[in-house]
Amino acid sequence: MNNWLQRWHGMAPREQWLAFSVGLVVGALLYMLLLGDPLSARLAKQQASYKVTEARRLEAQTGLADLQAKLAADPNIPYRSALLAASASREELISQIDQNTAELVTPQKMKAVLAELLRSQPRLRLVGLESFSEPMQLPGAAPVKLEPGAEPAPVTLYRHGLHLQLQGGYFDLLAYLQAVQASGWKLNWDSLDYQVGEGGPSQAKISLKLYTLSRQAGWVGV
């Protein structure tokens, strides 16, 4: 160490400044090689990952917005229109109801279908499940001639549905809804609510109502 100090003091001021400058350049190069480049690469990788995540989040938001827009429309419009057109007689009314509900999943099958599709989304957790069944208001059919004292049996259409309380993220929910749509079983959508709480986007609270239609006053069951 003393030898280095003696050599330093033996240098002319110009040589000292030149040696000092060379030392700074070497130090800067070592920093860039050992710390700067790896740090820059790591930051670039993090930024790229963030951009991908943000793009997926925006894509999921768009998908959910489209689904919610569909839910905002009255899913009963095709049935109401068909029933209004079939008001000539009670028999035609019943025929139109049966024709329009034939492709829907039965109330008995509905729970099994939704549960099976939910099992394929392990990160989407079922928190609560409730069933509901209620009659729908239908336009009246034209009166028919009956025997004295006889009363016509009312034509009633029932909504049988399930209210699912779920917990999960954007993409888990989106994948589940797409699976329901692609399952081949026709269901009606009543409502969809997605709320991000303290647990963050991956633990969002989800409320989803689905239902089917039937002339039978059966119960879906839970």
UniProtKB/TrEMBL annotation:
The keyword Transmembrane helix applies. GO terms for biological process: protein secretion by the type II secretion system. GO terms for cellular component: type II protein secretion system complex. Keywords: Membrane, Transmembrane, Transmembrane helix. The chain crosses the membrane at residues 17-36. This is Type II secretion system protein M. It comes from Aquipseudomonas campi.
